[in-house]
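The material for today's practical consists of a large collection of protein records. There is nothing in a record beyond a sequence line and a structure line. As an example, a complete record with its sequence and its structure tokens follows:
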Amino acid sequence: MELATQTHYAISPGAAEALYVATDLGFWKTDSPATFCRDVQINDTAYRRLDPVYFAWLRSRLALAKEAAKSGRIDPAEFDELRNRFAGIEAWSLDHFGAQTIMAAIRNLTPKAYDPPRGETESRRSEPASRDDERIHRAIRLVDAIREKAVELGWNLERLYRHEGFQKRPFAADYGLVCYIGSKDRIGDVTRQAIEIVGPPPRETRLRFYNPDVDQPWIRRIR
């Protein structure tokens, strides 16, 4: 966690729940926080487990959005939506972290020094078309290898393979697993709920491509 005081808020093994929040203030809650890493990517959106410092950074971003709305740089209705989302995040944070801890994080935060969650797919938007052709064919071969198991678990072929027009519109909704496998990635665990994408060494970042056609028992939406 990037803070002037180098404070790191780790999740307690006995924690009952956690809130995961994206930079657009979309969020979901899980009752099984120990199951997940600090950052989780769901298809093309990266979420981070909320802690006091991340809350403080999100609050600083909302303040910038407020100024942008006042100056006409963003639609006021768009800001109202962000503010409504943040209200739910703020209520959860006060309940779980307490006002004193949150205020300390706000005072100590250096927004420019904070490294927010980023989707792995952002770096793939700029891959040259010729390299992307090679990448997509490699991805198809990787998915071929796990197709039988995935289908048995409840995945349909569209979720695995759909990639028509990928180069023109690579991150449209409902595009398949093959669109998210990088040129040096491999496939890890395959379950009914998600298929793991493992990045190249040495980091081997693990992302999950989730199946929207089945229930995800660890997510409870909050309004």
Observations:
- Helices lie at 52-70, 76-97, 99-108, 129-153, 157-161.
- The radius of gyration is 19 Å.
- DSSP finds five helices and seven strands in the chain.
